Amino acid sequence: MGTNANGIGVWLGRGGLWVWTLSSMAGVGWAASCPDGEEPDREQVEEIQERLEHLRPETRRYGVRLAAELNWLRGWGWVLDALKDKESEVADMAQLSLAGVSCPEELDLLFGRTGLGHREDTVRLRVAEALGRVEVSVNGEQLVRAMKRSDPELCRRLLWSLERLERRGLLVGDRDLIGRRIEDALGRGHAERVRADALAALVRVQPSRALRHLRGALRDKKRTLLRAAAVILLAEQRRGAAGLEEGEPVPATEILAGLEAASSDAQPCVRRAAYRALGMEPGVPCLAILIRRLEEEDQRHLRTLLVEILCRISGLKHSDDPRPWRDWLDGLGESGVPLRAVSPGRDTHQTRVATTLAELRPSTDRSVILVDLSGSVWMELEGGVSRKQLLDRELRALLEGLPRTVSFNLIPYATRPDPWEKRMVAATPQAIRRAWGEFESCRLRGRGDVWSAVQVALGDPDLGSLVIITDGAPTGGEHSNMELLVPLLEWECRWRGIAVDSVLIDSAERLQRSWSDLAQRTGGTMTPVHFESEALR
């Protein structure tokens, strides 16, 4: 039997069975199960410990799953210990499994030294996220006490968990105390992303306290994310989903004025949020704003969004020429709200099958292209060529097809990301030749760490969309389980309105469904690609 590098096996092997036997004889409470669980027999304990000690990560992953299924206090301790496993498939399984915590005793473990109090950053972050998915009531006072100004990423995940718990009716505790602590995170000393997440949490947890901050964020010209968050939350208020109706109601005229101002904001992500909000319950004033913006909008993806919203509302199929839309609006009259008007929800999601990358276009004109160069890319196919050689040709065709109006960057990745440039550059012929030449000579190998590659791409403040070219199966890095990656990536992109386009080469249908879900959540596209036989020659 092997012992994994994290020390799980050593600890369990030397002490686990002895402690289990002692507790069974003495009947002490630490090994007690929750009311709906049963204490496991010795054979079960031995089987799970053997799996948790194993050298193979897939075996340890299964051991984590078995430990969680016990719904036994000691078993949850094993799950928490697996959060620091160096293999993401094991740690991700442990993080996902924590959603099964179902009683206060188990919840105490998550708040203790093996959970939020752990010395390792990654363990604390995983627990902070998982607390938003548990099926038991959580005292929000404990969550806000764990927030530290010195750890903005931990703050963000805790705020997200507060928001999700409140949405599901599982947040308990002194609302005034919780609200004041969240309000502290809206202060100037905190990172802008923390402040945006704090605004969302405060709107949910204590709407009456949130209203003045929401108004202030709409007027904040220096902080784009905060403005975008305020517009999105205002849109939720407009359709009665944000919780503000519990406090002072926001007048409809104030909402409309705020959305109109946001629709002409200098930042595309703020305009995008405003367009979607205006299209949710459109009356003539909202439609007039949307059509006026169609005349002035210079971003291709936002013009497309405006046309999609207007087509959905009207049932018409006009182009982005504003003239027929003005004629249609003039014919409506003052009370002529179209009967077919519905919330557009997320931007239109598309799935199309391709045999080449030559005609693919990013969802926006400011795109970072991530290319997975992990193991399978280097395997030879029929005809003696590898997927890397195919990608060399296909990526060149994709880049050469980019309009000059596009700004782009290129990030090949495997065990680590290797960005071509620090920031996006204009798609000039010279830039395209340099980018393709560097990619052609790239020899990155290893496992596919898409999470780290995305984090590098998100560092560009002008980013509008991601294009991820991959076989669809992340295999390395901090996160590799698509069940966890999809909501995490959506959360990372939500205030900036970043669309995630995926190009899946010869991928399984199961993986296509996950990437399709991500595309739908972010307003991107998912494109399965199966190269025709001629391309293999």
What would you say this structure looks like, in words?
There is one protein chain. With 537 residues, the chain is α/β, with parallel strands linked by helices. It has two domains: 8-249, Leucine-rich Repeat Variant; 350-536, Rossmann fold (3-Layer(aba) Sandwich), CATH 3.40.50. Helix content is 52%, strand content 7%. The chain has a seven-stranded mixed sheet with strand order 3-9-8-7-4-5-6, sandwiched between helices. α12 packs across α13 and α16 (284-296) runs antiparallel to α17 (300-314). The longest helix is centred in the first third of the chain and has 19 residues, at 8-26. The protein is globular and about 75 Å long. The two termini are 47 Å apart.
Brief digest:
With 537 residues, this protein is α/β, with parallel strands linked by helices.
Based on the model shown, name its key terms.
537 residues, alpha/beta, Leucine-rich Repeat Variant, Rossmann fold, seven-stranded mixed sheet, 9 strands, 7% strand, globular, disordered N terminus
* Architecture (CATH level 2) name of the largest domain: Alpha Horseshoe
Structural class: alpha/beta
Portion of residues in beta strands equals: 5-15%
Distance between the termini: 47 Å
Shape designation: globular
Low-confidence stretches: 1-33, 341-349
CATH superfamily of the largest domain, by name, is Leucine-rich Repeat Variant
Which percent bin holds the helix content? 40-55%
Total domains, how many? Answer: 2
Strands of the largest sheet, in order across it? 3-9-8-7-4-5-6
Number of strands: 9
Instruction: Tell me the radius of gyration.
Output: 26 Å
* Highest-level CATH class of the largest domain: Mainly Alpha
> Helical stretch count?
23
Remind me, CATH topology of the largest domain? Leucine-rich Repeat Variant
Major sheet size, sense and barrel closure = 7 strands, mixed
